[in-house]
Amino acid sequence: MERKNKYWPAVLAIFVLLGFFASLLWQASWPLLLLTLAVLGLACLFPFRPRLAFAALLIIRTGADFLTATELFSLGGIGVNFTSLTGIIVILLAVFSLFRERAWRGLPLAKPWLLFLGASLAVSLFSINGLLSLTELLRWLSFFALFVLGYSLFSDGKKSSFLIKSIILSSVIPALAAFWQLLNGLGIFDGERWRLSGTFVHPNMLAFYLVFIITLLLFLFLNLKRESLEKYVYLLFSLPLFVLLFFTYTRGAWICLFLVLFLIGLARFRLFLLSFLVIVLIFYVGFLPFRERLDSLMAFSAADSTVWRLELWRDSLEYAKDSWLIGHGPGTSAYLIGQHRSPLLGSSEPHNDYIKLILEVGLLGLGAYLFLLLSLL
Fold first, then answer.
1. Which of 74, 191, 302, 371 is deepest in the core (most CB within 10 A)?
2. Cα separation, 324 vs 307, whole angstroms
3. Quick one: CA torsion of 76, 82, 87, 93, rounded to 10 degrees?
4. Which of 74, 90, 79, 87 is nearest to 132 (CA)?
């Protein structure tokens, strides 16, 4: 009891801050208002039931990614959308958790994370757009906050199992939305075909999210005991997600999943690997849309997105030459590309995280990011 009472000022501070955010939402539509208040309510629940609140936040966040561009309110001339508000809440909860659980003691990867964030903060002082850099820094900080929450809340096997199941459960709403799009011919039209996006703003985001969920499901299926009924539930749940992944038509995600499953099978499950390769071969030979989509990677047609991306990356590296070492500021890559390339040439997003980092934080930030990745591995 003393431990809980010790942190009542922090709990009160969270309530006050969330009440402040709630007071700014009076102009929002009723559905958006209710959804946002639900998130704020979960944040208030966090000090008492942290793991349950965190799992519910995961589910709501993946089910509402399409609200990324919807402004909730303006604060000091800065528009705050649902994604930004969720990120701010996650950062606040991570700070609270750090002090309550004393999670900074022995926090893994703390130095690589702080090196990357510190380097990004330093180069942002020379940003070509300070507002974009501040927004991007907060986004990266929210990723670190999620890492902190994951470590502090799910430190042992039983708790980690709860986290994995919560992540899998978070795919239900996006999957149902994607099936609705599939059955009704909806989604995002890319000029040739309708591509599923579910609750995400772009098919590619849904695709890589599905790769992550499918990997978790198959990991559980392959590692649980053969007599366990639960393992077959995970396998059955993964099958419709394969269907949805195909209809995103995201070739990069297809290749990513192939590599993941190939390495898993090669390392331990040889029969699984053989079965998987046979299924892929049958699918490639017998299903024309799948074969055409993969073959287009090698065609290098001017109309294909592969050629467009290669040209975009070449141009982006030219723009990076102006500031190789420190870049142009976090979050400024699309802004920078848009200043040099006509909108008629397509999206100004770099479509490559490494080129994005070179443009934004230069070789200094990219080096810190690669150090973080290597430390994780």
1. 371
2. 25
3. 100
4. 79
